[in-house]
Specification:
The chain has 803 residues and is of the alpha/beta class. It contains 26 helices and 32 strands. The strands form nine sheets. Strands 11, 12, 13, 14, 15, 16 and 19 form a seven-stranded mixed β-sheet that branches. Strands 2-1-25-26-10 form a five-stranded parallel β-sheet. A four-stranded antiparallel β-sheet has the order 6-5-9-20. Helix 1 crosses helix 23 and helix 18 crosses helix 19. The structure holds one RNA strand of 89 nucleotides.
Length: 803
Amino acid sequence: MRYDYTTIEKKWQDKWEEAGVFHAKNGCEKPKYYALIEFPYPSGQGLHIGHPRPYTALDIVARKRRMQGYNVLFPIGWDAFGLPTENYAIKTKTQPAEITQHNIKRFTRQCKAMGFSFDWSREVNTTDPKYFKWTQWIFLKMFEKGLAYKKKMAVNWCTSCKIVLANEEVVDGVCERCGGTVIRKEKSQWILKITEYAQRLLDGLDTVDFIERVKVANRNWIGRSTGSEVDFATTAGETLKVYTTRPDTLFGATYMVISPEHPLVEKWADIIENFDEVKKYQEASKRKSDFERTELAKDKTGVELKGIKAINPVNNKEIPIFISDYVLMTYGTGAIMAVPGHDTRDWEFAKVFNLPIVEVVGGGDIEKEAFTDVETGILVNSDFLNGLEVEEAKKKITEWLEERNLGHPKVNFKLRDWVFSRQRYWGEPIPIIICPKCGFVPLKESDLPLELPKVESYEPTDTGESPLAKVRDWVEVKCPICGGDAERETDTMPNWAGSSWYYLRYMDPHNDKEFASQEAINYWGQVDWYNGGMEHATLHLLYSRFWHKFLYDLGLVPYDEPYAKRTSHGMIMGENGEKMSKSRGNVVNPDDVIAEYGTDTLRLYEMFIGDFEKAAPWSTTAIKGCKRFLDRVWVLTELATEGDEISKANESSIHKTIKKVTEDIETMKFNTAIAAMMSLVNEFYEKGCNKADLRMLTIILNPFAPHITEEIWESLGFVHDGLLLAQETWPAYDEEKTIDNVIEVPVQVNGRLRATVTLPMDCDKEEAIRTAISDEKVATAIEGKNIVKQIVVPNKIINIVVK
RNA sequence: GCCGGAAUGGCGGAAUUGGCAGACGCCCGGGACUUAAAAUCCCGUGAGACUCAAAUCUCGUGCCGGUUCAAGCCCGGUUUCCGGCACCA
């Protein structure tokens, strides 16, 4: 008999909601546990089949923790600002807020149908003025502390979306969202000084339990390097400051390169003999998109600044200066000393311009390629550094430079400040008034939230201004300081803003006095387990850690890291192994799956599909196995015999399974936890089971398949004290009972398996060998040969070596 | 180019971290039930050799080599694939 999942699932979802069993209680005396999933962007497509994978995983953790006696916070909300909604609004001439409401409704229905144990009473929505009031408030705090500032700068401009992109949103030189061409454009932008926290964002990684690949991605993104800043005198008078990680190669610096945007170029306009040529190169590189610059990376280009030379401080040799776009103004000092013998890029450039290549670190063949090995090289042609290893030479030259005031040690980061403004409508308005007399004037806290005005058209403008700029009666205001005519900032925040602190809002979501009360923040502390996609490792994760550290500095949060533990799930691919997409026609809709198999099966399959951390292809046939398993569990309710105590026959297997499931959930090995429960059910079919046996299975299966197990719990009369299965206590296993007293041990002869023998647990070596050689097959194998060695690994294996 | 990760049956994947390779599931084959089909239940299922069959043996974790009584796991080399970063001095 098959179970009627449609009726059952709805029934228990209603009961859970009615009983409010998943509500977290602030200040509860139980130990707290905060499990967090990345709140979704409520897109027009509805819930993707990939969403339930991480949601189910942490739902299992949350449900298990509740059963283990924790006060669990497992919240849900909507990261609802964003471009797709705005683009859809433009297309359909509807309000973004309306579209958002509509999409949220659909996502809510879908999430509820999955039976996730979210605390719906704490639902947040980043587009709700009650929420973004505090996003704006945190921004103003940053402004107050000098961490938010406006600056004219070259930004990434998507020619298709007509919007400024953060560096993080430019992927392979094109717009991450639409794939459009990205060019450099000068614009005045709000910037957040995340670089001020670079070192702390790096150090903090050592104090948290993040999976290694997340830490590595973060470290690479922050990109800390240590080296020296060195001053080169020039014949023009000005000093040219460079940054290098290889000061030991200073004797090999045969020319210099500065970025085309370097300010000294303008300063030297009158002295540079070929200024027209230089100017032309500058303009050409300015027009290049990032994509072109990357594409042309192999071919080095540049122009020498004729009439000016730099002087190498170690040997006072005059060397030429070039401009080239392979030197970036945004990193280091925008100028480098070129050591073609020991830097690949400099080597390539030197080959193009026929510049001298001098070997100063021996060990390679600099005729063929630059020798960059720092482990084995020995300094040559370097006067007082000769004979030293690279590390020693670095130390010595750094001291030498410092003594003469020519240079000093310096740490640099690849991380750049966060371009924080967007010229779009559907985002949090930046709560700043621009007054011709008073400058940037922040709104008073009492004027927050600054809401979005309703507008007729959300079309972005070609000038690059936000659609808000057209709403004159919103833009034109009086300056709060001087009372004169002023204008509002019309840029909005990027959608990374609302997600940078949402986990704090969940702690106290209805507070209209503070972003969350201190009691709530202190009670919930850090997020205990945060799971999310790898694609957010360097964006959202870094941004929110930065905001959190800022709030920590203000004394508003008790920990300087928001997330104690971070894990990541693999994607669910299409059945053909490719990424799911409409254009590939391999999209699976969770609503259809639920209709065909029920939610419990979908949840189970998403967990059984493979290693949680790895991508896995969807299979329309493999999911049937999970359905069959649940059907088999269901049938057990009829097969189970009476019994109040766990049967002797199943006792050992039950305890082993409890142990396996208990441990596997903690290490995210959901697939093997389910396999263990399947094996147990197979055993129940072989050996029979009683109701007490089935009761245990029902409890440990509950976090995975919560609906069917509640129904079984009720139908078999396990309900006590009016409690739901979700409120039951997680079973403890008896370690003793997971250990067998007799054990099958394989016997090898010369490393080849010949037999298995049955031995008592922990029996001694002599007995093991005696039993082994008395086995017929083993005896045959060693007959007429000398036993050279006997290896007995207790309870594992016996290996007899013969000659 | 650099930094991660991976490679195991027809398929998704297991393997207590050096100890019976292939758990669990899918697919497939055979049988039972059925007028029949679906569903369900039972049996089989890495490849090969010898067998009527059973038994038995050999080979087998991308490739080459090493360490070890014993290697999917450790070491050296190599190929391929996936992900991230990418002129960061």
